[in-house]
Design goal:
The structure is a homodimer.
Chain A lengths: L4 H10 L7 H13 L2 H17 E3 L6 E3 L11 H4 L7 E5 L2 H10 L5 E4 L17 H9 L5 E4 L5 H14 L5 E4 L15 H9 L5
Parallel strand pairs in A: 3-4, 3-5, 5-6
Antiparallel strand pairs in A: 1-2
């Protein structure tokens, strides 16, 4: 005897989640067996309904809350908000990145989520991303600046470079978020590439 | 704008789980949004049905699979199995500990799950545990040895001591699992209490 079947199945399913190994999965499952019954029911309900309730905004491809089932997803709250600066688009890789930028409260414009990066090694070219849709938005003429906020990784940098190449001909300014020392970081322990970027990007104070 | 409401609710619920902070919860939620739809539905279903499908064995209080809904929970597969040694009971704190002992394949007897330890500081006395039920099982007379496999923690040791005090008068042998060096451990890095127990519990070879 090991685990009763329903428990074994739950543990197996939980261990498919990112960052959750078999031991964590078992601990979570035991918690779900002992924890408050309403909490557990509510978690199951939230997971079960998630995909019906959240879709992608048809303009920026960030998350958008679906009002009615079977309806087309409405514009997300950022795209709907006419108070936001309508002439700037911040381009990010994933919906989670959009939310991170929003939390910084430093950007009041619009967004565009690529859903990935160009990655020749993985066979992901520009066509697999939402770049076509971005260029379409730019052709309408009201956007003056595109801020490329892809991650400072090899693929993120390559994607930024590609975007600048295809966007500049449209007469739109393309900028890239600064790469440098993270706040609270320590020069002694930071990697050389970051330190190099921090020196290269120095500004007069 | 931060998270759409259904996503925020899921993140909040996930972060109630043990060992899952807000960042991990967000990562899990994003995975559930992007991952295979069938996997997500199946996870929701497993969590939702878990508590209907798993109950506690009325004899040993380990997990037992409920065959029919609304029926009384049947004996677990260990208690039902007459091939197991019917004269030994291994006492553990939690159902997960029972499964851990089973996986070691070193024990072929029966179990009893206390569902906790005596913990005066937290106001948990013997009455809050399944000790009454254990003593009841012992009074039937067929058990010759009780192996106390509570954790080697302060509370686990106190519980073991208490059990030996109440069980011995019934004429049943009470043993305690060995405390010593874990396999693969290193004398240089092990704590002094464990090393002391390992020396104290030495055996001729």
């Amino acid at each position: 005897m090991t685990y009763p079947a329903p428990l074994a199945r739950l543990i197996q399913e939980l261990s498919k989640l990112p960052g959750i190994g078999e031991k964590s999965a078992a601990r979570l499952a035991f918690h779900l067996l002992k924890g408050n019954l309403d909490d557990v029911a509510s978690l199951a309900d939230s997971i079960g309904k998630l995909r019906e309730q959240i879709g992608l905004c048809p303009q920026c491809f960030g998350f958008s809350e679906l009002v009615a089932q079977n309806g087309d997803p409405p514009l997300c709250s950022v795209c709907r908000n006419l108070q936001r600066e309508q002439d700037k688009i911040c381009v990010v890789e994933e919906p989670g990145d959009l939310i991170a930028v929003e939390k910084s409260q430093e950007f009041k414009g619009l967004y565009h989520v690529l859903h990935g990066t160009i990655s020749p090694l993985d066979g992901i070219g520009p066509d697999a991303l939402r770049i076509k849709e971005l260029l379409e938005r730019l052709r309408h003429g009201s956007i003056r600046e595109v801020i490329v906020a892809t991650n400072p990784t090899m693929d993120g940098e390559a994607t930024a470079l590609y975007l600048s190449k295809v966007i500049k001909p449209l007469g739109v300014v393309v900028t890239r978020i600064a790469r440098g020392m993270p706040m609270g970081g320590d020069l002694e322990y930071i990697d050389v590439v970051t330190l190099g970027k921090a020196l290269e990007g120095r500004r007069e104070i």
